[in-house]
Design a protein that fits this description.
158 residues; 7 helices
Length: 158
């Protein structure tokens, strides 16, 4: 789980207080913000696409409608705050997260075999989309590797 910078937490808390939210709700909204930024960092998605995928993930995790609504409102207020603070591209720049370790995060999917390139860019694009979907659904890297190998075998057959 990522650690939110103190200045980001302070700004977000101040923004929530300006919106008139009670203290208990503010605490819950900070939790949703941390989950959202962790999700964005983990899957390297930005902006509205990351927001949409995060809400889909909450639905897959069987979060209640009230929880999904609270998360949606919390993230909407965060995006509103960042856009107001520094312009339209703020969501990508405002959420600077730090990790306890200085090493870059290495994907567990790196050896899955879908990154191979072939003579057909269409197949490569298709496998990249397949890999993205498998990652979003949290399937195992062995599943991705198996699907990629069978897809490449089918491509060679054709």
């Amino acid at each position: 789980m990522i650690i939110l910078p103190a200045d980001l937490v302070a700004s977000y808390t101040a923004h929530l207080q300006e919106c008139g939210l009670p203290a208990a709700t503010i605490h819950e909204y900070k939790k949703w913000l941390r989950y959202y930024l962790d999700f964005r960092h983990k899957y390297a998605v930005q902006g509205t696409e990351g927001f949409r995928l995060f809400l889909e993930k909450l639905d897959q995790k069987k979060q209640t409608a009230a929880q999904r609504q609270a998360a949606s409102h919390a993230i909407s207020l965060y995006l509103q705050m960042t856009q107001r603070r520094s312009g339209k591209d703020a969501p990508e720049k405002a959420a600077v997260v730090t990790k306890p370790v200085n090493e870059p995060r290495v994907s567990a999917y790196r050896d899955a075999g879908y990154q191979e390139t072939s003579d057909s860019p269409e197949w490569d694009d298709l496998l990249a989309k397949l890999a993205g979907e498998i990652k979003v659904r949290h399937y195992s890297r062995k599943t991705l590797k198996t699907y990629a190998l069978w897809s490449r075998q089918f491509q060679r057959f054709l």
